[in-house]
């Protein structure tokens, strides 16, 4: 089964190719605990978390309880990724964020620590999520204007051994070029939106060319619709035809496509049966792979709409 595949990061650390997404936007209390428990029971060994998701405590409790019930599984068998949020980019805040995540996740090291976005937002004194007067984040600056202080703090965490690997999320080719020009420790991963409506092919290739492993968020197309047609990835007729003839469900086909393209996939579900089936990922035949590639070719529908959320377009070159 393709689900047990692992990759080796540019510093030699191994990462399971399938990670469980934990962003339960507006999820009810306890939803993340139940979902992560189910995921660990089904066999996922990679959890994708973030300080911003405000549910690391539930992930930590689920992990702690699972390990207590299953003494044959050790902390080091589980790969944990988490991320520093936009208003915690000052070097001292990066460390604060790291410690805060460790404490909520009930772990003393993180396997992969990422800079969540290449933008810095206004900082709130109590570190709660800052929303501006019009309900939007207050963006202060593009981190790529000077990512060096933030990245140096990330490098210190890696050098201390508390973060086994460090990386970024939502970075463009231009941003990565800049980061690579001064990084003492290269980013190991760039976590970005990838599905057939936003294959991000150029950025993915740039990452591979620079030994940065891409990780696909929203690999099932999230819940979003193409603004112009209203279509979701999971409603696409061709993709559903591929699923039908392959004998697998569409989510499995989408995940298999991502694994065959060679990167990490991070599906999220709060539904027990889907958590289970999303971890049963087949190998795609050449024909089925080509059919999904054909849907993907030339498509560029960015679902995480930065302009609406942040009033700022983070990925100008890829999102058009
Ligand atoms: N770095 C970043 O900026 C970002 C990172 N992420 C990460 O990526 C993860 C996944 O991304 P996300 O946006 O949640 O999108 P996904 O593409 O994983 O889609 C999740 C949606 O698909 C549904 N779903 C899951 N499995 C199936 C299935 N088998 N059949 C039909 N529907 C299904 C879920 O419903 P239900 O839960 O009801 O089953 C949910 O509504 C996040 O949880 C987070 O960890 C996401 C966004 C941004």
Automatic annotation (TrEMBL):
The active site is at residue 53. Keywords: Oxidoreductase. InterPro entries: AKR, Aldo/ket_reductase_CS, NAD(P)_OxRdtase_dom_sf, NADP_OxRdtase_dom. Residues 18-296 form the NADP-dependent oxidoreductase domain. PROSITE patterns: ALDOKETO_REDUCTASE_1 (PS00798), ALDOKETO_REDUCTASE_3 (PS00063). The keyword Oxidoreductase applies. The keyword Oxidoreductase applies. Substrate binds at residue 116. It holds the Pfam family Aldo_ket_red. GO terms for molecular function: oxidoreductase activity. The record marks 83 as: Lowers pKa of active site Tyr. This is NADP-dependent oxidoreductase domain-containing protein.
């Amino acid at each position: 089964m393709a689900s047990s595949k692992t990759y080796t990061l540019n510093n030699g650390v191994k990462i399971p190719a399938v990670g469980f997404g934990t962003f339960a936007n507006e999820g009810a209390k306890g939803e993340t605990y139940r979902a992560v428990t189910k995921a660990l029971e089904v066999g996922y060994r990679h959890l994708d978390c973030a300080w911003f998701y405000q549910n690391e405590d539930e992930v930590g409790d689920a992990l702690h309880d699972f390990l207590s019930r299953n003494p044959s599984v050790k902390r080091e068998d589980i790969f944990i990724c988490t991320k520093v949020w936009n208003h915690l980019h000052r070097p001292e805040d990066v460390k604060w964020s790291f410690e805060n995540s460790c404490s909520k996740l009930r772990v003393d090291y993180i396997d992969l620590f990422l800079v969540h976005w290449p933008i810095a937002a206004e900082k709130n004194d109590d570190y709660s999520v800052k929303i501006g007067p019009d309900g939007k984040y207050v963006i202060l600056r593009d981190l790529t204007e000077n990512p060096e202080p933030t990245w140096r703090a990330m490098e210190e965490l890696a050098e201390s051994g508390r973060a086994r690997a460090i990386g970024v999320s939502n970075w463009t080719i231009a941003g990565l070029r800049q980061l690579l020009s001064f990084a003492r420790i290269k980013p190991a991963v760039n976590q970005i939106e990838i599905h057939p409506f936003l294959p991000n092919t150029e950025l993915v290739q740039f990452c591979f060319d620079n030994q940065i492993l891409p990780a696909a968020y929203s690999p099932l197309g999230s819940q979003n619709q193409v603004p112009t047609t209203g279509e979701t990835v999971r409603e696409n007729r061709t993709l559903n035809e591929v699923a039908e003839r392959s004998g697998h469900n569409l989510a499995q086909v989408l995940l298999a496509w991502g694994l065959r393209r060679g990167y990490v996939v991070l599906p999220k579900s709060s539904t027990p049966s889907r958590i289970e089936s999303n971890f049963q990922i087949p190998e795609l035949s050449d024909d089925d792979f080509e059919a999904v590639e054909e849907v993907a070719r030339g498509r560029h529908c960015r679902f995480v709409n930065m302009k609406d959320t942040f009033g700022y377009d983070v990925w100008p070159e890829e999102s058009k």
